[in-house]
TrEMBL record:
GO terms for molecular function: dihydrolipoyllysine-residue succinyltransferase activity. PANTHER family: DIHYDROLIPOYLLYSINE-RESIDUE SUCCINYLTRANSFERASE COMPONENT OF 2-OXOGLUTARATE DEHYDROGENASE COMPLEX, MITOCHONDRIAL, DIHYDROLIPOYLLYSINE-RESIDUE SUCCINYLTRANSFERASE COMPONENT OF 2-OXOGLUTARATE DEHYDROGENASE COMPLEX, MITOCHONDRIAL-RELATED. Coiled coil: none annotated. E2 component of the 2-oxoglutarate dehydrogenase (OGDH) complex which catalyzes the second step in the conversion of 2-oxoglutarate to succinyl-CoA and CO(2). Keywords: Acyltransferase, Lipoyl, Transferase, Tricarboxylic acid cycle. It comes from Parvularcula marina. Residues 189-215, 253-265 have a biased composition (Low complexity). NCBIfam families: PRK05704.1, sucB. This is Dihydrolipoyllysine-residue succinyltransferase component of 2-oxoglutarate dehydrogenase complex. Residues 1-76, 108-183 form the Lipoyl-binding domain. GO terms for cellular component: cytosol; oxoglutarate dehydrogenase complex.
């Protein structure tokens, strides 16, 4: 029997929501056939069957939230095929699960600390849910680990008895560290006995009960009031990440009032409907609010005469499409104009890291793409080195796959600057919000004919308002205005791009 588990979804993604099952129990599948769609906060991912066989169990239902390496389904392979030991999921459990497959009575299996992403090098043991001597079934949660980003439950790789627990709650461990030992046995029950429910907490001890050992240590070290911290862990527990975020935001029992507790859901009217926000929409909301709370954001405006670009596009659009197989749009001109300006004003292409500034000698431009599920920002790598045709092809591909939900995590990470076009929806003017940790974002708007004065004559020209939002902590007003003027000049006289002026 082969387990189908949640794969690694990207360095900052720790959980996903089961979107739609493409198979049901009893169905036969081929190797690499998609069996379930997972929805993360950034993209939808299809999980393939690791081998040919029959789906004998579906362990996670549509709408469930599952963490990395959680069991999704079990597959009985075709007769005569070699038993798969599962994919290398990068969380340290593969070896344990593989050795458990052919375990004999009394074999000891190690439970190791999983990896929680490339940027996470350690975690704190939050809470043990079992003790030595307890019987557990495969995939039962043994303990929770807390990083500065998320709380992760560690499941048992096999059914057996907890023989040894090597670390106490609050201890700091690194990925791959052995946390516990499970002893297997042929007569271990198929299901571990249900654990008794914890007694109700009194109101006076409710705040203390929500703290895990790791978050309690942060609270004590910084002298903050836990009553003001909103817990995002299981059952509302305050994780280490929650406590650190509260401290970073300036929360203090003596100085900052307690955060308001979420209000109870209000009653719905006869013509109202309550729909849970998708994980993508929740992440968009959180990241935009974080951007406003973190950056000293300011917006400067200008307008650009689009006559030259529109005439160039009108003159060559048929020949361009015939040769390159893609339509010549406006976005490629803006990408080129921005890359040219970023070279001159490097602060706009940089980011703040603590008390340091990281300057970047590459120009990876994020292009905001609207989809039915929300806004995604795939990245044009080395956009300064791409031709107009390649930029248009990449943007068209991003738009198509964004609507299909097939963009990958890697394609939406690591941008140095972002362009968003509200003009396609009819927007005349807006103030775009920074895509942190980037320091600048350009907002395009609709083109409309307006009277302007040129050489003391009032003429009608196709004009577009441009909005440049920037982080004033790193970009001065002079730099931001100069950047926007350079973009304007490059668009009004595209030959400047050819001559590198």
């Amino acid at each position: 029997m082969t387990d189908i588990r949640v794969p690694t979804l990207g360095e900052s993604v720790t959980e996903a929501t089961v979107g739609q099952w493409l198979v049901k129990e009893g169905d036969t599948v081929n190797a690499d056939d998609p069996v379930v769609e997972l929805e993360t906060d950034k993209v939808s991912v299809n999980v393939p069957a690791p081998s040919a066989g029959t789906i004998i169990k579906i362990a996670a239902q549509e709408g469930d939230t599952v963490e990395l390496d959680a069991l999704l389904a079990q597959l009985e392979e075709g007769a005569g095929s070699a038993k798969s030991n599962g994919s290398a999921n990068g969380n340290g459990k593969a070896a344990a699960a593989s050795s458990a497959a052919g375990s004999s009575a009394g074999e000891e299996i190690e439970v190791v600390a999983p990896s929680s992403g490339e940027s996470v090098t350690e975690a704190d043991i939050g809470e043990w849910l079992v003790k030595v001597g307890d019987q557990v079934s495969q995939d039962d949660t043994l303990l929770s680990l807390e990083t500065d980003k998320a709380a992760v439950d560690v499941p048992s790789p096999v059914s057996g008895i907890v023989k040894e627990i090597r670390f106490d709650e609050g201890a700091t461990v690194t990925p791959g560290t052995v946390l516990a030992i499970i002893s297997t046995s042929d007569d271990v029950p198929a299901s571990a006995p249900a654990k008794p429910a914890a007694p109700a907490q009194s109101s006076s001890s409710a705040s203390a009960a929500k703290l895990t050992p790791a978050s309690e240590r942060v609270v004590k070290e910084h002298g903050v009031d836990p009553a003001g911290i909103t817990g995002t862990g299981k059952d509302g527990r305050i994780t280490k990440g929650d406590a650190l975020a509260y401290v970073k935001s300036g929360g203090d029992a003596a100085q900052a009032p307690a955060q308001a507790k979420p209000a109870a859901p209000r009653d719905l009217g006869p013509r109202e409907e309550r729909v849970k926000m998708s994980r993508l929409r929740q992440t968009i909301a959180r990241r935009l609010k974080e951007s406003q709370n973190t950056a000293a954001m300011l917006t400067t405006f200008n307008d650009v005469d689009m006559t030259a670009v529109m005439e160039t596009r009108s003159q060559y659009k048929e020949l361009f499409e015939k040769k390159h197989g893609v339509k010549l749009g406006f976005m490629s001109f803006f990408v080129k104009a921005c890359c040219h300006a970023l070279r001159e004003i490097p602060d706009v292409n940089a980011e703040i890291d603590g008390t340091d500034i990281i300057y970047k000698d590459h120009y990876d431009v994020g292009i905001a793409v609207g989809t039915e599920k929300g806004l995604v920002v795939p990245v044009l790598r080395d956009a300064d080195q791409k031709s107009l045709a390649q930029i248009e092809k990449d943007i068209a591909d991003f738009g198509r796959r964004g609507r299909e939900g097939t963009l990958t995590m890697e394609e939406m990470q690591g941008g140095t600057f972002t362009i968003t076009n509200g003009g396609i929806y009819g927007s005349l003017l807006s103030t775009p919000i920074l895509n942190m940790p980037q320091s600048g974002i350009l907002g395009m708007h609709r083109i409309e004919k307006r009277p302007v004065v040129i050489n003391d004559q009032v003429v009608v020209r196709p004009m577009m308002y441009l909005a440049m939002s920037y982080d004033h902590r790193i970009v001065d007003g002079k730099g931001a205005v100069t950047f926007l003027v350079r973009v304007k000049e490059n668009l009004e006289d595209p030959q400047r791009l050819l001559l590198d002026l």
